[in-house]
Amino acid sequence: MLNMVTRRFFLKTSAAIAAMSVMPSGFASVLAGKEKAIGVQLYSVREDLQKDFDGTMKALVRIGYKRMEAAGYQDGKFYGKTPAEMKRYLADLDARMVGSHTGSGLLADNDTKGWDFWKKNAADTAEVGCKWIVQAGYPSGDIKTLSDVKRLADQFNKCGEIAKANGLRFAFHNHVDEFHELEGKIPFDVLIEHTDKELVTFQIDTAQVVLGGFQCHDYVNRYPGRFANWHLKDADKNGKGSTEMGKGLVDFEALFAVAEKAGLEDYFIEQESYNMTPLEAMKYDYDFVMNAPYVKW
C-alpha cells in the first residue's frame, strides 16, 4: 500500500504535497496585520498540472496563491522535481510549499519497509521546506473492527514522532468513510480520542465532514485544539462531491467563528469537481475567501 500516486492513497498510491518554511504555532499571531494567508491544495488543478505544470503554477500565483499544498510526491520527488529543485522553483515564483499529502495503509510495528517509507518521506518533505506532512486519507480497506481503528491511531502517533524528528507536524485528512459507524462508534471520534494531541492534528476537510452527516463547527466544539489545519471545500447540495465556495452546504462562517478554539494555523482551498474550469474555480474560491468578512487571516 506504499508509494502510491493518487491523492487518495488508499485507492492507489501515496501522494504528497510540499509546503512553505515552518511557521511558529499560533496562526493568528503570525499573520496579524498581514494579507489573508490563503493556501491551495494542488490536487484541485491536477489535470492542468499534468498538461502544463509551469503554466498552471504561474497561473495560481497570479491569482494570489503563494502557499501550496502538494499531492504529487513519488520516488523522492515532488512533481518530478527533487526537494531542493522544487524549493528553488517555488522561491523563484515567490511561493512556498507548506505541506505534503502522502500515506500508507495500516502498518504493523515490524513492517520495516512501511516505516522506512515514512522516514524517507518525512526527510524529503522537510527538505522541500514544509511545515506539514499529512496522511491523505483513511485506509478503509484495512479497517474491519474498532480495534483496527485504534491500531491506526497508534500508527498516527508514531507518524507524529517521525514528523517531529524531522521538524514537521503530522496531520490526518478526513474523507467520508471514517464517519460511518463501526461497532457503535464513529471511527473519526476514536482516532481523535486515541491520538496524542502533541503529535497528531486533524486536517478537517469541510465538505467531507458535511457529506458524512456532521457539522465542522460542532466537531471543533467537541474536540477543541485538535484542528490546526483545514481544507476549505464546499459540498455540493446534491451530495455529488464539491462545488465552488458559498454555493454548497458548508457553513464557513460558523466554522471560522471557532477558528481560535480549533487551534487553526493553516488552511488550504481545495475543489475536486467544478462548474467552470479548475483555474476559474480556484479564482472564484480565492475571491470568496478574500471577500468573506469573517475570515480574519
Evaluate the radius of gyration.
18 Å
Number of H/I helices: 12
Order of SSEs, N→C?
HEHHEEEHEHEHEHEHHEEEHHEH
Question: Spans with pLDDT under 50 lasting ≥5 residues?
Answer: 1-33
- Assess the beta-strand content as a share of residues: 15-25%
Numbering strands along the chain, what is their spatial order in the largest sheet? 1-2-5-6-7-8-9-12
| Total DSSP E strands | 12
Describe the structure.
This protein has 12 helices and 12 strands. The protein is an alpha/beta fold and 297 residues long. It has an 8-stranded parallel beta barrel, surrounded by 4 helices. Strands 3-4 form a two-stranded antiparallel ribbon. Helix 7 (187-193) links the parallel strand 7 and strand 8 (200-205). The longest helix has 20 residues, at 146-165. The termini are far apart.
What tags apply to this protein structure?
alpha/beta, 37% helix, 12 helices, 297 residues
Summarize, please.
The chain is α/β, with parallel strands linked by helices and 297 residues long.
How do the helices and strands line up, and which of them pair or pack?
Layout: H1 27-31, E1 39-41, H2 46-51, H3 53-63, E2 67-70, E3 73-74, E4 77-78, H4 83-92, E5 96-102, H5 112-127, E6 132-135, H6 146-165, E7 169-173, H7 187-193, E8 200-205, H8 206-211, H9 216-222, E9 229-232, E10 234-235, E11 242-243, H10 252-256, H11 259-262, E12 266-269, H12 278-291
Parallel strand pairs: 1-2, 1-12, 2-5, 5-6, 6-7, 7-8, 8-9, 9-12
Antiparallel strand pairs: 3-4, 10-11
Helix pairs in contact: 3-12, 6-7
